[in-house]
User: Fold these one by one.
Assistant:
Number 1:
Amino acid sequence: MTKAELRETEKIGSVEDIRIGVYVCHCGLNIAGSVDCEDVAKFAADLPHVVVSKDYRYTCSDPGQELIRNDIKESKLNRVVVASCSPRLHEPTFRRVCEEAGLNKYLFEMANIREHCSWVHLRDRKSATEKAKDLVRMAVARAVLLEPEKENTVPIIRKALVIGGGVAGIQAALDLADTGYHVYLVEREPSIGGRMAQIDKTFPTMDCSICILAPKMADAGRHPNIELLTNSEVLEVKGYIGNFKVKVLKKPRYVTDECSACGECAPVCSVTVPNEFDVGLATRHGIYIPFPQAVPSTYIIDRDLCLNKENIIVCDKCVKACERQAIDFEMNPETVELEVGTIVAATGADVFDPASLVEYGYTKFPNVITSLEFERLINAGGPSGGHLIRPSDMKIPKTVAFIQCVGSRSEKGHLYCSNVCCMNTIKDSLLIKEHWPETKIYVFYLDIRAYGKGFEDLYRRAKKEGVVFIRGLPAEVIEDRKTRNLWLVGENTLMKKLYRVNAETVVLSIGIEPRKDSDAVQRLLTLSRTQDGFFMEAHPKLRPVDAPTGGIFLAGCAESPKDIKDSVTQASAAAARAGILMAKGNITVEAITPRLIAENCTGCGVCAKICPFNAVFVDEESKKAEFIEAACGGCGTCAAGCPFNAIKMRHFTDEQILAQLNAATKENADKKIVAFCCNWCSYAGADFAGVSRMQYSTNVRIIRTMCSGRVAPKFVEYAFSRGAAAVLVSGCHLGDCHYINANYQTAKRVEKLWKKMERLGLNKDRLQLEWVNASEGERLATKIKEMQVIVSSVNAEEIDNSKKMMRKG
Amino acid sequence: MPVRIWRKPLDAEKIKVKKAEVHILKNQCKGCGFCIEFCPKQVLETSDELNIKGSHPPKIVDETKCALCGFCTAVCPDFAIFTIEKDCKEGC
């Protein structure tokens, strides 16, 4: 701290000097529509230490910001409270405003009266206004105790990790490498290329997929700044923005770099299996290359298939066939440790398995194929040499029917639209028309979504070519046993007529779904997922490629279903965002890390045991706890767990949280729910409930902590001792914690509290624990509605009891 | 790429996997069982049959599984087993 800052801190020590400015934002009618902002501002003016209180139409606008800056200077404000939207949205804006006016940004506080009030109480102006007043009161109470803090800067390692070598990962890696950063590109499969390599042509330009991808793959393969790690998986990611330590498992290929991909080895291999790349439509050997354009252009041995198990070499046919002696059965798995500053997650997506929709008969009827199988069949390099044969008799079909939205936009699959299937089908229909113009083509659809550049033109072209579009998906596909042709029956919803169409091949236009192992990636990188299961961005509009975890960026279908163009766009954006961080070279770390109150510390080591980051240890000589600032994530579970009050979490101190509790329970506590929500999941979930206008009761007061692990049992006890009717503790789902596993401590503490309440003869239902992620606004709203029942069932005697008991306890 | 794989590959007929004939010289066998133990395709198993040496020679469970690796020949201490490629010119 500088001398000036020290002086400032000392000044605040005496409570009389505190001068708070409160600004109540109308946000147009977003807040003013259901909250009387003027009334709230008037109320705030009478709160202790408040010297300025104003309501303003758009506080985040330039004049709004100017107003605050002027007041800080003229009225000598040393605390600012803005009652407006979520701090997750505009806290950085107003913190900057404070700094511009010479006020330390940690002396700013926000009351969320939009997402947590006006939007969720649209039809009860009176109660919403009362709640807004309470929220402002809580913010002011906290503001009084805020302290100026100085942020540390940490250097950023100028290397990046890209996970996933599909088109998005390749693009991100190339962009970063061209900018001059060293990039590690990790791919699980033996070759980079991903889904795009399997596709025949791309829409709307109809150019050949592999022809435009292969040069990019080759570029990535030989770029001096890119280190390719194929057949490899990320095992562990530790650290934080700018300083990640990553462990990658390099699985052995059993073929060295000496391989020239001559292909002499494969034909002599006596074991075969369906090739994954051709969706099982072609065969590969135990030693194989996934596809001719693979990068690296090296064969690989599938040891699960190979006759040589473990250490016994029973078959050496490939070894004998290889002139360059590139085969090495002695290769072992290898773990490499990387240090990177930024990570781009481009882990891609899976496709929907239509076998679960029995009405379409996939896997029952040979001539019902998926759109991915279609791509391999129509591809000149595919198993049928580009002839669209039907599997039952290898003949080229004269009628082809496409069924849209298979696994998309339906309860039977996924509720979301998979984004690419409409255009993919239109492209496929044109491909058929190009090769076999006489083919009759039907497309059964719900809606055709031709929203992108050039898409509508392509759609029109398909109609002009004679492709028949019928609105209404078939109810059933029935096979003619003799001909193996298929009958599609359903209703044409535009004509209000039933149809019965005969087709020789049916193509199921299957949707895109999150990777089956998304939760593993999610845990590795501490990401969140939306209800659909795709990874969530930090902000859907303004930070669409940033993950909520600092230093991690998203690209491609991992974030949501998207086409090649969007994947590439997003990948370049992610590379640029990662590049910005690395170009700066260092980053400031939020000053929310703990400080030791040395005289209270007994060196018991509880904090060291529960710290998820191993950032605390007990010094052997001094017998006091010590913190490793750079490793600390700032969750605060150490402070909540310390039995001797020896840890002070900066910016989330016990006193500040207790002051918020005091303010929240000042009036009508016996009707209120106090909710502790973690910043990353539950508070964001509450914001999401607000954005989605999910209505719930007005008596809940949300207190934000960085992690639910910060919620010390004494906070809950204090809330009850103040007469609160109910308390909700809410955090990320177990396993999804932003701070690795800190929320397991939350679960333990709540368990203990429940036991204690039972022992004291209190109704333990008054304390609730709910895991809510950032997309589960509905879950939070429902929980609050449920708790309303508990609140109304609690009588005055019970409240008094808990007041007495908890005070004693 | 976890996609459901269930069809018989279109080229299944074309891919020529060599067919094998397994020959056991039963009376030369001392019944050590190496061939049975080391066969990667589990083509062989012990039989109840007794040969002139009073030991149990192996018997063939499924000749079509044999991948012609020749390891049985290599491990047999008694030169009692060998495999040859089937002559499939006239189909087999």
Number 2:
Amino acid sequence: MCVFCKIVAGEIPSHKVYEDEDTLAFLDIAPVSCGHILVIPKKHFVNMEDIPEDELSKLIKTVKKAGKAIKDGLAVAGYNANVNNDPAAGQIIPHIHFHIIPRTEGDGLRLWPQSKYKEGEAEEALRKIKSCIR
Amino acid sequence: MDCIFCKIIAGDLPSYKVYEDDKVCAFLDVLPIHPGHTIIVPKIHVSDVESLDDGELCAMVTVMKKIGKAVMEGLGVKGYSILLDNKDAANQHVPHVHFHLVPRKEGDGLGRWPQSGYSEGEAEECLKQIQEKL
């Protein structure tokens, strides 16, 4: 059983922030900043491809609820929410989860660097992606 | 209409549109973290996730799932990250709510923010403050 399923089942302790029938939000024990929350579906889905749309909808609604509670409760100015989908993206636990990370002005956390497309590269990326949209 | 994303949605500014339907638009970020980096926006102008109604939010995640699959198949990448920057403190540069979908590869050098631990009682205090606002 995966570590997140064990947390859902109560076999591993956690600081539960919120739960309902389908989703659970709990504090990450290795937070980037105080109040860093993980939001998961209670059912075991590995990633975005695995989770059905209705379950994903329930998950994102809990993200929205938890994000607002972080801002209001911790009086922080904002937050970043992210999903790392698959090991290539740094997903360590194979149970889909959103991170919500509280942010304050000047906290020193930087976003990933951005660059520019070379000539024709954007058109090529666009063509490839669009050809696979179902 | 001052919002750059509203102008893109309206066709007043050119863009590389990946997908659109009646609620959601997705287009390539012209300053990509990696080629294929796509921005997903609601067609309605709201500044943050809290202002977005659940129906629009769920429509967005459904599109993210669809585009994520197309990005992986079309570009031959094995993963992607989804990012939401909520407010200036979290580096939200355009005040029209948007998700980033960033193609990822093993060893691409995109690091994680440093994580730490809670001092005694700190997690419990954080938890209480968040739960009060749920």
Number 3:
Amino acid sequence: MAEVSISGVFKRFGPVAALSEIDLTVHDNEFVVLVGPSGSGKSTLLRIVAGLERQSEGSVAIDGRDMAGIAPKDRDVAMVFQSHALYPHMNVFDNLAFNQRIRGVDRKTVDRKVREVAERLEITELLRRRPRQMSGGQRQRVAIGRALVRDPRIFLFDEPLSNLDAELRVRLRTVIKRLHKEMRRTSVYVTHDQVEAMTLADRVVVLRDGRIEQIGAPDALYEKPANEFVAGFIGSPAMNFLRGEAADGVLRVAGAELAAGPASGASGPVTVGIRPEDLLAGGAEGRGGIRARITLVEPMGADTLIFCATDEGQELTVRLPRHTAVRERETLTLAPRAGAVHLFDPETGIRLN
Amino acid sequence: MIGRRADLYRVLKYAALIAWSIFVVAPFLWALSTSFKSDPGVVGGATYIPFLEYEPTVEGWTALFRDTSSGGISMQGPYLSSLVVSLISTSIALFLGTLAAYGLSRFTFRAGPLGNNDITFFFISQRIMPPAVLAIPYFLLLRFTGLLDTHLGLILVYVAMLLPIVVWVMVDFFNTVPIELDEAALIDGCNPIQAFYRIILPNCAPGMVVATLLCIIFSWSDFFFALTLTFAKVQLLPPTIVILNSNKVPWWSLSASALVSVLPLVIIAFVLERYLARGTLAGVIRE
């Protein structure tokens, strides 16, 4: 059992508010990812849970016990750092064993636990090496191992993959996901990479400027973003945003008329959001079609990204299946997939439909 | 062609090193040779080779340990005193200085408008004043506290002189250790003191070596404070040796005592040297 309840947390650095009004409960065995651009306060929130930083207001409780005044070492949390933070003067074995030794666990048990974890992470042959004698990926494996050996109540990850190259990042991501599936430990994971957030999380928490923008399952965030920021942040390439007008169930956008969709009482100016993969080429012009001129074609292998501009000069990204016969400077007629149009208030950015 | 150039480079390198070695070692050899001479060997012009050019004698060495009443120097007492004073003051300065430096490197202090950098400068600024300026205040201070002419008094003065050096060297070293290491240790089950001694300090070994050497060299060879703050009960090595210079100079004993007094520094330097070169911190921060 390990549940983290964060309620009413504020963090101020002088006059700057790094976190405001954070309410979040991480349930037992849940994998929650905090995601947001840099400066959104996600790392600060994680460090408050770890006890490395103290909140200005509000409370953090683990399993119902208030953590105020409780040192990091007594919270039974393990943390993986972005800079791996392995102890340079110890070899891998000693790095993995450090926590257990400090806690006075007997030699035999320590030895067994370290070897188990080393095997699990396939780092057995590295046990005698020093951190400086290993590659970045190996070091981060050891850093994950250091957390595993402890078998803590809660795992905290602070951008553990951000310093690795793309291929390693994908590999270690699956390692982390598999470990979580096997061990089922409450985990809080911080990243600025929305792909990591989507692939790893049971629930994603999107943060911006120290506030929670939305909390939800990855699919829910993708399909029903609560506001324009979340819509733009989740998904790659990012969602297209167009200026439009809504009236009587009809949506006028970029010279086209679209059905505004059910349950949309919106009227007046709106921001229309359409994901690149929800734009289909070849729709009829006028009613239901947006005319756009292709400015750039990027074949990606599995599919092709097409950048184009509407007659009014608004830019659009479209994801089409590969082998789509399109060329630059051609004109496309694009229609959104039914039910895949997101409407936002142009002033507040809040979702309307 | 390349091989020849490499050879030439090696030859030049070793030639330069040999020249430097002669430059460094020659005075010691000269002192060693002198320590076995007696009056005729010293006064009759420069002589180098024992048995051929002069008759060697161990008088210079035995005099070191003989009582003053029988014409000796009785060096054991001052030697031990110097050893005790310099080792204890170095230890205290290292203990306090590393803690102070760690604090200044890791925590934010505010004293009105002053912050960490000002406090660090305050430490270092203690060494701006020349010792001669400090001698009289120290003298009065020690007399007032009854610590004049005691080991403890001298140790306190040395600690005050050494502390800035330690703080200065170690703040720089601690600043190179990323704070994530402290944090990892804290989460891993250390209290702050354990994090300091088990994780941070071992990674600053080269800094400790530098600080230790600077402290030992200063406290072991200090002449000025030893002369002004002790006189009867406590006698340290440097004044004892210098006093040999007074009337009729026993060059042989002077040379022998000089060699013996350099010995501890040489031993310490050799022992600590291997910790200096190692780049312990490589691989802490991802390259």
